[in-house]
Design goal:
Length: 186
Amino acid sequence: MQIRPATAKDLEPLREIDGTIESLQYLHVEASGEGFERAWRIEQRPLRQKLIEPNRLDDDAYFTAKQIITNADDGTVLVAEHEDEIVALLIAQPRPQFRTLHIIDLRIDYDLRREGIGTALVFQMIQQARESELRAVSMQTLTNNLPGANLLIKCGFELSGIDVRHRTNHDMVKEAATLFWYAALD
């Protein structure tokens, strides 16, 4: 296994990484109160049926990766290779106005999960952020991606916020609210 910066020839294979999300549980969000008294409660719950979601690399993340790889924008794109095939991807960009490094996308091929690849990629970004004297590394997940949330917790991230309308006005109904995570470095 080799982790390295992505090159232009890696662009098309990035779309082939099987980022399928599979889980028997999700993070349920419950809201109570009104106005400034609004409160959120998040708890792990079983799904009605096993979640198997394709989770393909979206066009925005692909475009960002292309911009970074071709030096048109700042950031980092790392890939992991196994037997001459790209099996993992991490896309990150600095957010100087917040002094953070934001992980835009992290995906590990379905067949190679739980082997430490994701952890290694995230820790490389944490180290890069430290060397750049940034204050935190940030990332977003959806409440239906419990494996992703568990990886971030394992890597020292803390849940820092929730947006129940980030994607649509019905995120909570669809059990797919956005969670904001930070790994503080100072």
